[in-house]
Amino acid sequence: MPRTHAVLSRHAMATAILALLAACGSSDYVDVAPVSTAPAAPADPAFVDNVPAPAIAAFVDNAATNQQSQTTVDVNAGVRVLAPFMDLWRPVKQTIDVSTWDGLQGTVLNQAVHDKNIQYVVDATTQRTAAQATNAYLDDRQNQAYSIVDGMGPLTAAWRAGSKATTTITAVAPDATTVKYDDGGNGAGDATTAEFGSVVSFINAMRSNGSTEPSKRFYKYPRPWRWSSAVKVVPALEPAKSPTPATDGGFPSGHTNAAMLNSLAMAYAMPERFQEMISRGLELGENRILAGMHSPLDVMGGRMLAQAIFTGNINAPANAALKQKAYADAHAYVQAQTGTTVGTLYAYAHGGMTDTDRFADHDTNKANYLRRLTFGFAPIKATDAPAVVPKGAEAILETRLPYLDAMQRRAVLRSTALPSGYPLLDDAEGWGRLNLFAAADGYGAFNGSVVVTMDASRGGFWAMDAWRNDISGSGKLTLKGTGRLVLTGKNSWTGGTEIAGGTLEADSNDALGTGDVYVGSAGTLASAAPGRLAIGGAYVQLDKGTLNIALGANNAGTVAVKGTATIVGGTLHVTFAGGFKPTVGTTYPVLSAGSRKGVFANVVADGYKATVVYSNTSVAVRIDG
Questions:
Q1: Is 511's pLDDT higher than 90?
Q2: Does a cis peptide bond (omega within 30 degrees of 0) precede residue 419?
Q3: What pLDDT score does 2 carry?
Q4: Most exposed: 234, 312, 455, 592, by fewest CB within 10 Å?
Q5: CA angle 583, 589, 594 (to 5 degrees)
Q6: What is the CA angle 381-386-392, rounded to 5?
């Protein structure tokens, strides 16, 4: 079989090929002639995904109405966010009358959902561990802005040093069952410091118009321990139980709302821990259930309201300069404290193990976050209603997905939203169905043309990011710029992929969907798949483009093209992954195809001399030394 050496120029390669072909005879003919033209790139869809805001009054335009002086759906945007609760529970009065309210002034409209809601708390509180009880107590009594900072993992110490946040509650006091302890700390920290004060001010600003009291007093839904004596409140929290139900509604959870507002602010300022911080916020929400103080519906409502309030604040013109300064100051301080740079901060932030950072495992966080969005409720309505995205919600992701524009971030939010039909979550604006954890992992579907331009010179997520969702849809992905985008999902989009610039790294066998893949002259396809990377259509590589194969045992990293592989030139770069050490004299397959045309201009095998070996349906490398 004819072979070409890695260091041969294209002209010398062609000469050698012709000589070898003459020697071999026609019966052994293998087409290794260079090609100068290639098929066109996958066709660009004629549209980009447009995600308009719902044509209703938006919370972001009416956030200031969330005040205790306004407590009805008609006049309070926060109360209106939670309006689907009235499908489950109807307060007797639409205006508050605390002089006569006995705490049970309402009618259950969906008994099955209500019963499950309270039984969930019964089960959780009767089965909780001592450690869960302690955590529930601390999350109840500590200021939420202090409590959730441990979601920063390896960055926690630096964050607390910068914020100078304090608490007076560090453990469960021996007499806590009879004495109510309030946190005398300073919450998010000291806003007067030069280095970190902007960050503290930003966190506090994100809680503007943030009260849950108007909703509590409108909906009048009792706390779970008022519904059932089988609910076991954490004994150390007995002194914290209010004796006045008229001012102590359960829905929505105020602690969850505060925790999520704080966690969203911290995630915005330090998006390297975005998913971990919002996971910590919902963990605090679940601790409210374990405490016996709130039900799942209470916690779900607290999350919804927090997302709306944060969106109102992050979009407020008055906060435009503050949010930028908070982001910059947080990074400057934390990087100085940890000895990191813009290029190394992410790795440092994820350098902990689960014994020191309980949010170290992405998949565990993902499962917990998804579970806490619905707490096991089954849908009660149709599950196929199209998702809508609230006006301004895309701003939540502007530091986490900075290389996408606002409409693209809206498309991400829609494509990762929960199915419809769950109790409470089908609000008209779309707050209930948002899955911010999934959104931080990129698109869930490509609809139309998706063009992503990254810039390695800007560092952070501009330089490298990973999309971990299973991406469907009929659209096309085009990568431009100089950054590196990693795909890890079981992807099935059909419109093809064009790598016009930068590096697209495929870390799963199905990372590239089912369409054609086109590697332009400034692009690199990097295969780090655990097995054979599947390309469902044709593969085209232009001159100066690069195919990078991270070759491992059992054909890991190799590429399997269903259609024709057309190689106009460019580079084949073979690295060796997972400790794999090739054997000198052995030939290793790197690409298979329905048919192959053309040859690489350059071949590099890290640490070895290699010869490229072609057949009409494959490319391999022989390790020469």
A1: yes
A2: no
A3: 39
A4: 455
A5: 175
A6: 115
pLDDT averaged over the chain? 94
Beta strands in 413-567 (DSSP E): 449-454, 464-467, 476-481, 484-487, 497-499, 502-506, 517-519, 523-527, 533-535, 539-541, 546-551, 559-567
Which position has the token pair 């952070």?
460
- Torsion angle defined by CA atoms of residues 56, 58, 64 and 69, in that order, rounded to the nearest 10 degrees: 40
Residue 4, pLDDT above cutoff 70? no
Share of the chain above pLDDT 90, in %: 91
| Packing angle, helices 254-269 and 197-205, rounded to 10 | 140
Burial of residue 496 (number of CB atoms within 10 Å: 0-12, 13-18, 19+) = buried
| pLDDT, mean of residues 419-431 | 98
Could you tell me if residue 614 is left (phi over 0), alpha (psi between -120 and 50 degrees) or otherwise beta?
beta
Distance CA 188, CA 133 (A): 24
Of 374, 369, 370, 407, the residue nearest 391 (C-alpha): 407
At 364, the amino acid letter reads T
Nearest to 261, CA basis, from 281, 247, 275: 281
The answer to whether the beta carbons of residues 528 and 507 sit under 8 Å apart is yes
pTM of the model: 0.94
Biggest CA pair distance of the chain: 103
Cβ pair 614, 596 in contact under 8 A? yes
For 294, residues 6+ apart whose C-beta sits below 8 A from its C-beta are: 121, 223, 224, 250, 253, 255, 256, 285, 288, 302
Q: What share of the chain is helix, strand, coil (3-state, %, to 5)?
A: 40, 15, 45
As a whole-number percent, the residues of the chain with pLDDT over 70 amount to: 94
Cα-Cα end-to-end distance for the chain: 20
19 has a pLDDT exceeding 80: no
Strand order in the sheet with 571-576: 464-467, 484-487, 502-506, 523-527, 546-551, 571-576, 602-605
| Residue among 276, 284, 278, 346 nearest 310 (CA) | 278
| Whether 620 contacts 590, CB under 8 Å | yes
Do 517 and 525 meet the contact criterion of CB atoms below 8 Å apart? yes
The pLDDT score that the predictor gives to residue 101 is: 47
| Span 392-408, average pLDDT | 98
In angstroms, the CA 263 to CA 257 distance is 10
Cα–Cα distance, 557 to 571 (Å, whole number) = 16
Say whether pLDDT at 322 is over 70. Answer: yes
CA–CA separation, 463 and 370 (whole Å): 28
- The whole-number average pLDDT for the span 330-350 is 98
Question: Which residue(s) pair with 478 in the sheet?
Answer: 451, 498
